[in-house]
Amino acid sequence: MNLTFQVEGMSCNHCKMAVTNALKELDGVEKVEVSLEKGTVEVEYDDKKVTIEKMKNAIEDQGYDVK
């Protein structure tokens, strides 16, 4: 499955790495692509292993707002 989150507050490579690492720690997340320019996070994941809510919470736990 693929999903794109709109994320506010990401502005630098540290932000990009924080979000990427938080998502990759979740079992079931296979690929993460962060676009600082677009304010998006594209995730490829196994919906049998991880929920959208868990991924959203992982991003928000890093201090960013998911829209």
UniProtKB/TrEMBL annotation:
NCBIfam families cross-referenced by the UniProt entry: chaper_CopZ_Bs, copper ion binding protein
Stored Pfam families: HMA (PF00403)
GO cellular component: cytoplasm
Annotated compartments: Cytoplasm
Keyword Transport carried by entry: no
Protein's UniProt keywords contain Ubl conjugation: no
InterPro entries to which the protein is assigned, alphabetical: CopZ, Heavy-metal-associated_CS, HMA_Cu_ion-bd, HMA_dom, HMA_dom_sf, MerP/CopZ
UniProt entry keywords in alphabetical sequence: Chaperone, Copper, Cytoplasm, Metal-binding
Domain of life: Bacteria
Record protein name field: Copper chaperone CopZ
Record GO terms (molecular function): copper ion binding
